[in-house]
Amino acid sequence: MPETHAEPCSSVDFALPARTPAAPRCSVLHGGARVRRASRRRAFRRTRRPGFALRLALGKAESLRSANSDAWILGADQVAVGPGPELLHKPGTEDQAIAQLMRLSGATFQLVTGVVLLDATSGVSDTAIDIQTLTMRAYGEDEAAAYVRRYQPLDCAGSFRIEDAGIKLFARIDSADFTGIIGLPLLAVARLLRTAGLLPGP
């Protein structure tokens, strides 16, 4: 991942059909906006964690509005925070990845995802927040270095991928929706789509 985006390694950008009799408009899911690391850090310090993630998600959705004026636009963004109040960033190099993993050894941090469903026609949006609380094992530097050199998580905030051998670095994951770990909490998305009438059911 580019250095400026503090989220897990996968990103998404695809179209979803909207199947409502009243509004058969397309839905666009956007996961590609980028901001500079320093700007992101300053903005985060001025905003609470859930609010910051929602702000980024709304920015993504709004960036597509003019080109998709008759669409439902779904924007999502995730920030990795901790331990403490600081954002986790993409390491970029093996040495920085190992150092970041050692900072996380035995520690607890959070992945906070904001999701926004925007009606581009009216400008009305609905939002959801997903929070994952993750605790790492107290692993040593040799284990961290071996993981980094084998799997190269240099473009991942936190210097791990939950979907590869990075999972062995974890002691505990507390979550209401495990799909939120990789950046798009599908239970929250489904709730937003149902509320908008884009999925069936109460």
TrEMBL record:
Family affiliation: Belongs to the Maf family.
Coiled-coil ranges per UniProt: none
Keyword Hydrolase: yes
Membrane-spanning residues: none
GO cellular component, one term: cytoplasm
Keyword Cytoplasm among UniProt keywords: yes
Entry cofactors: a divalent metal cation
Reactions catalysed: a ribonucleoside 5'-triphosphate + H2O = a ribonucleoside 5'-phosphate + diphosphate + H(+); a 2'-deoxyribonucleoside 5'-triphosphate + H2O = a 2'-deoxyribonucleoside 5'-phosphate + diphosphate + H(+)
Organism from which the protein derives: Nannocystis pusilla
EC number(s) on file: 3.6.1.9
Single annotated GO MF: nucleoside triphosphate diphosphatase activity
Class in the EC hierarchy, top level: hydrolase
Function field: Nucleoside triphosphate pyrophosphatase. May have a dual role in cell division arrest and in preventing the incorporation of modified nucleotides into cellular nucleic acids.
Domain of life: Bacteria
Organism lineage: Bacteria, Pseudomonadati, Myxococcota, Polyangia, Nannocystales
SUPFAM superfamilies per UniProt: ITPase-like
Biological processes, Gene Ontology terms: nucleotide metabolic process
Localization annotation: Cytoplasm
Protein name: Nucleoside triphosphate pyrophosphatase
Keywords: Cytoplasm, Hydrolase, Nucleotide metabolism
Active site residues of this protein: D77 (proton acceptor)
